[in-house]
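ARCHIVE CARD
SHELF: 3
SLOT: left
DATA:
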Amino acid sequence: MFSRRIDRLAGSLIREILQLTQRPEVISFAAGLPAPDVMPHTDLSDVPANMRQYGPTEGEMELRAAVAQQLGALGRECTPEQVLITSGSQQGVDLVAKLFIDEGTPVALESPTYLAAIQAFRLFGAEFIDLPLSSDGIAPTALEAAIAQRRPAFVYLIPNFQNPSGYCYSAQKRQEIAGVLEASGVPLVEDEPYRELMYDPVDRTPISSLLKNTPWIYLGSFSKTVCPGMRIGYLACSPELFPLFVRLKQATDLHSNRPAQWWIARLVSSPAHNSNLLHLRDYYRIRRDAMDAALQRHFRDLADWETPHGGLFFWVRLKHACDTRLLLPQALKRNVAFMPGEPFYANGIETSGAIRLNFSHATPERIETGIAILADVVRARMA
């Protein structure tokens, strides 16, 4: 009765955990939720009347132009006519899957990587090629070997403050990866939802900006810096790919939220936007440092981790590896939530020995309390 794809349809553990963490007593390190206190005030009272009508699939030109200008400042030159406004950057991931993937299509991605990308690609039948991830990025030699052996339809990377690891690619890795892609012609899908959440100086050069002849897709979002409830993201790409993405979006939702596009276009083009970003970074830096300090106090003998230079997550690797999914029920009994590491591996893994901890949503005081409880849960399991 249903399509063959339905057999590959999997739920999201993150979304399921989120349902469990709505109770105020739960300290949640699970989902990557922005803090409500730093979301800008939303005033839609002046939305023009024509924004109530259907709009262009490509998005509002004012917002497309603002995105193109921002990308140009990063070195990734593109025109507004190469920018498609999407219903969150997750829709961009879905459109990529629809464009490139048939059953059995090889796709190369980081290991571990973004859970919802795994879901979207798997739904359309992708076969995954793992690219092991280190703190400075994937190995260009591993990418080169994967392309030579199986030639993926595209390579999916999150170079800045990667989800789930928080890692940021080094400048050298970015250059070398771009060289491999240029030599092979394999398209790059570069997912950048966290690039503005930078707390320490690091190189954030888009890998796509280093490509001259290879097809590229760049995904971005306003969910982490403005308001996730508005569900506004964007997809920019090589000119030859753009008409295909527009037709795919036409078949999906016609167009994205017009009043939200209008409001965000004015926000990001205003002088206050940079001040908002600086405030956001200062705010989250305090919470990152609070979690790092709590981990030093309670997890020093239990795990290893790198302090992320940006983003929303710590990737904590237990010294005594276990299936971290078994820790979750015990933590939830004590009103603490986190994300086990195992689901972030596209080809599956029995024991990741890692947990992902979000630091943006809880206060420093609740971070301290929650990390102490979580350490007790880990020690009890290891006993």
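SLOT: right
DATA:
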Amino acid sequence: MWHHHRQCPSVLSQLRSQALKQLPFLLAVVLGLFLLSPGTAWAAEVLQVQGGSLLLVGDRNRTYGVQLACVQVGEAQQQGALQLTRQKLPRFSRVNLRPVGSSDGQLLAQVRILPGGEDLGSALVAAGLAEAIANDVRPDGCPAIPGS
């Protein structure tokens, strides 16, 4: 009986070792599914406004470069868009991100300002500082533009 009892920790350590070997793969799969599902939203904190449509946000342990996915800011509107974005999103503002993809290492996402859920891209469009990306080239997950 003593011999059998000594094998249990060995079996447990083998199971633990196998689980730890699979952990990076499982985390990558979960993160990939999370980022690729356009309906999913998660809260983050604005760390820096880097441009009219580019933010640096953080969650509890990571930072992300986030590009607004559904709008584009023209060169002439960059300064105004930067000012409005900084006004609406002071440092440490809370936002919900709705990922729609990625491009050049940047997360493409719709950004909703918390509390209330105002869409930052829509606010920029309403102020005349951005244009919605046309339906035929916009990423999946962006709302369609009526009439285009």
